[in-house]
């Protein structure tokens, strides 16, 4: 099945550092979603973006919907140990078409003290 | 706690067998989505039910089927299991985006 390209694939960062990751697609999406998955758990929705160019924050997390509609970015500021996990982006051609949701390959984040 | 309940959490079975995975959506949600997560394929959409009716099918094998009951819980039936069916199976419910995922069922086929 199709997957979106996420980078980096994994990253080690020090506590307190800022983190950036991105997701690219060959197709246009009209909704971008960012999820976090902890070990042994299901993905949890962090941020949803519905408009090209939109910048949305959720606490220390900020995500942006790329102008081309083919990419999205997630930033985490001042990382803490509980940020450890796998972050997935996901795109939908239209809002409400969750059956057509395509997930990214994931970015594994590990934080060192 | 997402409010989505999946049982069982772990399942080990032999090739050729049939299993049933169960999902209870979050209160108030009418949609249930099933996903398969494997190491090589990532998260893949399988099937979507809304208020008892099948709404969309994704990469779901013919050996797999699902249904949603009047109380809105859903079951995913996997038959003639193969080693390659070993994966995490998640269900998600939502009013809009699939924001609430269950903890998943880890299926191991031996």
Q: Can you walk me through this structure?
A:
With 113 residues, chain A is mostly beta strands. Chain A has strands at residues 5-7, 10-14, 19-24, 31-37, 44-49, 55-58, 61-65, 71-76, 85-92, 102-103, 107-112. In chain A, strands 2, 4, 5, 9, 10 and 11 form a six-stranded mixed sheet that branches. The termini of chain A are far apart. Chain B is mostly beta strands. Chain B contains no helices and eleven strands. In chain B, strands 2, 4, 5, 6, 9, 10 and 11 form a seven-stranded mixed sheet that branches. Chain A binds chain B through residues 1, 3, 31, 33, 40-45, 48, 88, 90, 92, 95-96, 98-101, 103-106, and chain B through 2, 4, 31, 33, 41-45, 48, 55-59, 90, 92, 94, 96-104.
Q: Concise description?
A:
The complex is a heterodimer of chains A (113) and B (110). Chain A is mostly beta strands and 113 residues long.
Summing up helix and strand content along with how strands pair, one would put the structural category of chain B as: mainly beta
In helices, the fraction of residues of chain B equals under 10%
Helix and strand composition category of chain A: mainly beta
Q: Tell me the greatest interface.
A: A-B, 24 and 27 residues
Q: How many DSSP E strands of chain B? A: 11
Low-confidence stretches of chain B: none
What is the quaternary state of this protein? heterodimer
**Largest sheet data of chain A:** 6 strands, mixed
Helix share of residues of chain A?
under 10%
- End-to-end gap of chain B: 31 Å
- Tell me the number of helical segments of chain A per DSSP (H or I, 4 or more residues long): 0
* Low-confidence spans of chain A: none
The Rg value of chain A, from CA coordinates, equals 13 Å
Distance between the termini of chain A: 37 Å
- What percentage of the residues of chain B does DSSP assign to strands (E)? over 45%
Strand content of chain A: over 45%
Q: What is the global morphology of chain B?
A: globular
